[in-house]
Amino acid sequence: MKILVLHSEVPADGPPEDQDTLIAAEAVRAALVRKGNTVSKAAFRADTLAALLNEQAPEMVFNLVEGVDGKGILASAAPRLLSQLGMAFSGVRAEAMDFTCDKPQTKAKLRAAGLATPDWSTPPDWTGLDERAFIVKAALEDGSIGLDDDCVVTGAAAIKARAEDCFRRFGGAWFAEEYVEGREFNLSLLGNLQSLHILPMAEMTFADWPTDKPRIVGYGAKWDEGSSGYRHTVRRFGVENEEPALAAKLKAACEGVWKLFDLTGFVRVDFRVRASQPSILEINPNPGIAPDAGFAAAAQEAGMTYDDLIEAIVKAAA
Ligand SMILES: Nc1ncnc2c1ncn2[C@@H]1O[C@H](COP(=O)(O)OP(=O)(O)O)[C@@H](O)[C@H]1O
Ligand SMILES: [Mg+2]
Question: Which domain holds residue 80?
């Protein structure tokens, strides 16, 4: 097949989460070439997309656009334009991407459908805050932006102050979610509107974690290889065999999510588990797909090579 790998436009001095897109784009290109495809690669720009497609004439686009002008909320411009131009593309559709990009909106839809998600509170009213600990996080961005050792706070005044502080530092919208002390699972899902394949379930463990540090996969743990959080968050597999009842609950939640949001392509759902009850933190459409990312690790656990995974994503789009 003739395939165009489309990625975000990333400034050379952009943050590590943006550089990751370029690493993924190159890895995907190489994998597709090894699978016998003719592949080109380009950065997405709304104003030149039509001309680019005309010039390259691909049969399909492998979409790795994670944001526009550094804003994740604008990423859906790529699938929206591609579908308007009648071009087949991999991954989530624009509507599902827009919806799931907004964490409070996603949580409201999950809760209305009876799928468990932790309690939350949004400005300006901040209703529902009580004596429980809350984590203050970005409503519209991912990549653990703003999640450091001080992001878990208690008390309405402290929560509001933290949200204001994050706004000053990062801009954007911030909200508070009940902090779920407990285990963390990341589930990698692959499929289309007809079928869903759940890859082996990954648990993120917090190994030898300092007692005074919140047990979260914060910004350092995700992006700074030199940080202690990075070294002490360790992925493990095996819940399906070891705890089948818990695995069944995680699976049922993923099936519910897949249908509820009309998901397609590759998606990762993040969970926390307290008292054996999984609760959905967020849905990541088109999550990081670099060879060292969680999605590729789950595929490998399933016995798929990286190249097989990339090919499966192409097939899911066809
Ligand atoms: N309500 C919560 N309770 C406990 N930990 C949380 C909660 N929300 C987020 N976290 C921690 O922060 C990490 C990042 O949060 P998440 O909602 O997945 O946003 P993103 O990955 O898009 O930045 C999670 O992987 C988890 O470790
Ligand atoms: Mg996450």
Answer: 2-90
